[in-house]
Amino acid sequence: MNTENNNINEMFNHFKGQWDTEEPLVGHEDRFLNKLEKKKNKGKGLIYWITMPAAAAIAVIVTLLFTFSPTSKNSKVASLSPKTEETQVYFASIINTELEKVKQENSPETKKLVQDALIHMQELESDYEKITHELANKGESRQLIHAMITNLQTRISFLEDVLVKIENIKKIKETYYESNQS
Length: 182
Known about the structure:
Helix content: over 70%
Number of strands: 0
Largest sheet: none
Number of helices: 5
Mean pLDDT: 77
Radius of gyration: 26 Å
Low-confidence stretches: 69-78
Strand content: under 5%
Shape: elongated
Order of helices and strands: HHHHH
């Protein structure tokens, strides 16, 4: 016990005179709390809008996986089951909304990012078409349904990431503009 105290005392003695003992400027705590509150309020909405579709998607996936069982492996399904179609429509509406947001953000600063995003979305759409073709030919299976939903979720996540990057570009531009105005 005594050697532990000596080790701690040695450590503190080693840093003697190096501690920051300055008091922050008046109002520092208020400014910090205001910034923290702004971030906290801003984050609530984003988290809510990200978690709610994710929770709905998980519920749909679980429902599809546990309630759907094909009658036979060889039977071909001409159309998708109502639950699969409902899931597809739900995700498609979110994807279209997010895609429109990305397209609206096309500016000289974000042009390359938007173009790359649209190309990547076309690739994901091509993969999705292959999955739906498999669904039509082989019928619905857990693996194909999972692949379909994963593709749709990937597209939504990708578009949300692109929108975050666009927001960051805007903030950098604003910060640069503000610093040059001073």
